[in-house]
Design a protein that fits this description.
The structure is a homodimer of 220-residue chains. Chain A is of the alpha/beta class. Chain A contains eight helices and twelve strands. Chain A has a five-stranded parallel β-sheet with strand order 2-1-3-4-5, with helices on both faces. In chain A, strands 6-7-8-9 form a four-stranded antiparallel β-sheet, with helices on one face. In chain A, helix 2 packs parallel to helix 3 and helix 6 crosses helix 8. Chain A binds a DNA duplex (30 and 30 nucleotides) through helix 6 and helix 8. Chains A, B: Pfam families: Response_reg, Trans_reg_C.
Chain lengths: 220, 220
DNA sequence: TTTATTCTTAAGCTAAAATTAAGAATATAA
DNA sequence: TTATATTCTTAATTTTAGCTTAAGAATAAA
């Protein structure tokens, strides 16, 4: 999650940046309104923290400018302007929240999380640098999309879901192929081969190992 | 827009109800936590205003209970509990905002509006260069109007609303056809075929892909 | 080295999806 | 209401993706 901080007081910027990075967010900063608006147009942010009093463009102006095109990205005002009228002006400009200085950092974090709650509900499995998006039936290897067939996808998911445990050929045939009797063709091998070929992992990325005589195991 | 007020102090309830009705909202009220939770389960509200100190169930308990099933409906705490710790507790329970008494009615209205902003704007859906106007049942492809039948329109909307996620055949039959048992004729295929034919997209505009063995996915 | 296991490849087969057409159901107009 | 047009559904046909098999190559174990 990538957050843009638009604030001119260096002390506050550093305080926010450090705290939010510790929370696991990626942070970009802008020291004046114009630069903040500029940045917001060049790359997509997941949330924007905005001061009111800024050089070149005020926070209100930045907020309105962003909202002309983008109605979605959450914007939170973070400002010493604490009258009701100012709060209302900020919210009317299109902000999603308005927090008055001095504020509690912990409360800020909770208020930030509110906006991410609704977005993060897609289930994602990972195996090393492999990312599996279950909702999209999508596999990313080192950020690159790899297209697997349905069976390949299911087999990979099965191994990843059982990360750290050896999956025997029998278990795989049972659970992935749904065959409940002795079955010993080379199907699994063929599919493992196809998956490995498509994932095209480097030698040091040996996330999927074969356990000779038994089956396979995934591990990051 | 229908708002539920859960608050035991009659004076505040009347004040809120009158003010919000003047703003054009439909209001329901509950005088204790248990009744508030009960109401929230029986009919869908667009937003819930929640006091903290309530008879029978506290606001926190109501909030958590609602959030067990429903992660979406905005919940705003409106309470005299004004410490940082309490605010955080409220937000962590799943609330979307936390307003401290005494509050400005005007600010409350603005904060309520924030949550409706996002809902009301999806009158128009887009998928690449396809534009779907829900209010007019109108579809534009590269600015050109395309006339779809009702079912075709619904199916297309469903895919677009779930943009980025694979829609399985079962989900489609459930949600678009409203059939709740195993049903495996070729209807979906026929309609997908009709939609694709009518949209008449170029090869590079492959916004609607079939996911073999699973279903379909829309993506711009 | 011998033997067993796993990997790789390619060809045939199977099942899923696309297409088409025709009849049933529903909506619209006369 | 009846007549007409539109839309929906079913079913048969064609096409295509991908699953399976089997056989030889490569690799690991004995």
């Amino acid at each position: 999650m990538h957050i843009l901080i638009v604030e001119d007081e260096l002390g506050i910027v550093q305080f926010l940046q450090q705290g939010l990075e510790e929370e696991g967010y990626q942070i970009s900063t802008a020291a004046d309104g114009a630069q903040g608006y500029e940045l917001s147009q060049n790359e997509p942010f997941d949330l924007i923290l905005l001061d009111w009093m800024l050089p070149k463009m005020t926070g209100i102006e930045v907020c309105k400018a962003i909202r002309e095109k983008d109605k979605i990205t959450p914007i939170i005002f973070l400002t010493a302007k604490d009258t009701v009228q100012e709060t209302i002006e900020g919210l009317k400009a299109g902000a999603n929240d308005y927090i008055k200085k001095p504020f509690s950092f912990e409360e800020l974090v909770e208020r930030i999380k509110i906006h991410f709650r609704n977005q993060q509900q897609d289930e994602i499995l990972t195996l090393g640098s492999i990312e599996i998006n279950l909702a999209q039936y999508l596999v990313l290897v080192n950020e690159e999309e790899v297209s697997l067939t349905h069976r390949e996808f299911e087999l990979l998911c099965y191994l990843v879901k059982n990360k750290g445990k050896v999956c025997t050929r029998n278990q795989i045939i049972e659970d992935v192929w749904d065959i409940h009797f002795e079955y010993d063709t080379g199907v699994i091998d063929v599919f493992m081969n196809a998956i490995r070929k498509k994932l095209n992992l480097k030698i040091e990325q040996d996330y999927i190992k074969t356990v000779r005589g038994v089956g396979y195991i995934a591990n990051d």
